[in-house]
Amino acid sequence: PLYFAYSGLNTDIGLLNSPIAWSGVVLVIGGAIISKVSSALLAARTVGLNWRESFAVGVLMNTKGLVELIVLNIGLQNEVIDGSVFTIMVLMALVTTFMTTPLVKFIYPHKYQSRHKKDDVDIVRATSSTDITLADLSTNIHILICIPPTPVVVPLLLNFVQMLSGYTKKTYQKLLLTTAQMIEVTDRYSSVLMATNPIPDEAFEPIIEGFGRLNGVKFSNQKVISTPEHFPEDLMEVVATEHIDALFYPWQISHESNDVTAQFLFESIKVCPCTTAILVNPGISGILNLSEAKILIPYFGGPNDREAVELGLSFGILSCVVRFKPINPQNTEEEDEKFSQHLSRLSDEQDPGLIYSVREFNDESDDPITAIKEELKHNQFSLIVTGRSETLEYTEYATDIERALGKVAAGLLVENIRLELLVVNRGQNSAKFFCLEDLEDDKQS
């Protein structure tokens, strides 16, 4: 700032006191603009930019600033130029600098940038050596675990992989696991280039890959590099192209990222064709001891709760399913009644991985959060698996977290339940998790 002030003190507009002097101002400004814009425009066209983008580059390159002022002051001190030439050049620098912003906005407006943003920021995939083939996808279940931009502790991921590996113990299918690193970038090319370069701190890849092999899980890794507003559609592109059956997203809730992450999850759930499971506050209850872990699955009814029960039972961990049966049977779906009967039969057959109980519940007057807290008083659980209730999904009074997780899970967070929550939403296409009917058939055979 002091150098600019010094240059201003050396500028004397009073020296431009004749038409010839002002014609020199116009000539210098015109020559500077034409020469710089035309040369930069041709260079941009040479490397493949279109005319609009090339013209914008030329205008941006036309700005004059500190380097020019340094050269002018040195020339003035050494009497290479006089005061009038110095003043003309300073005026040229000011005009070319101040014209840049409005001219660029006119040539390259925001709507044009938005239209071409997807060409600049796209999905970048980096698959590990254990590539998943089409033959694998046709016979096995494929799960995608998102690695958000916020740090995720590797032991928690390993613990989660081990929970999912319990699926193979109950079915003949193998588990295919893909991790998707979500790398957030801006619209600047430099940000995209930095994101697409190899990241040195990726030690979790070989760790998860080796751990997966020990647990019979085939592993691959990808990167999803995108701007925040395009994360949902880019993630859904991975889900579609990779034939994903279930999407898992760990969400460490913090005051800084609540609104942004909740909006991202809500937009993703609305369009996700497969089952979505959001692991809220992973690690809040410590690293799970799977041999002693116990899952609480509150079952109020509906497709999301049924999906939550099936997913919880597939972990191979002792699961306590509590059926909160409505007092008014008119509000009970036929599928919920059939599902409850299957659970009851499995419990009667003394399935070692299931504890099933029924509680009466008035869905018009009773509070579901209070009912779940009563269950937590009598037993010690490591994880709560619940379906994403849709009661407040589209009301104007619902918070962002309620829209993303549903009323029940959001209510548990408000009550500061010190347990991990796995919130399950059934997509348009049913996941290939084992059905209770199939499990009964296996037991009978």
Write a concise synopsis of the structure shown.
With 445 residues, this protein is α/β, with parallel strands linked by helices. It is 50% helix and 16% strand.
Question: How is the topology of this model organized?
Answer:
Elements lengths: L1 H9 L8 H28 L4 H11 L4 H12 L5 H16 L1 H8 L2 H11 L13 H6 L1 E7 L6 H12 L1 H4 L4 E10 L4 H8 L7 H11 L2 E10 L4 H11 L4 E6 L6 H14 L3 E6 L13 E6 L3 H11 L4 E9 L7 H15 L5 E8 L6 H11 L4 E5 L12 H6 L1 H8 L5 E6 L10 H9 L1
Parallel strand pairs: 1-2, 1-4, 2-3, 4-5, 6-7, 6-9, 7-8, 9-10
Antiparallel strand pairs: 5-10
Helix pairs in contact: 2-3, 2-5, 3-6, 4-5, 9-12, 13-14
Can you put this structure into words, describing what you see?
By secondary structure, the chain is α/β, with parallel strands linked by helices. Helices cover 50% and strands 16% of the residues. It contains 20 helices and ten strands. Strands 3-2-1-4-5-10-9-6-7-8 form a ten-stranded mixed beta sheet, with helices on both faces. Strand 4, helix 14 (258-271) and strand 5 (275-280) form a beta-alpha-beta unit. Helix 3 packs antiparallel against helix 6, helix 4 runs antiparallel to helix 5 and helix 13 packs parallel to helix 14 (258-271). 33% of the residues are buried.
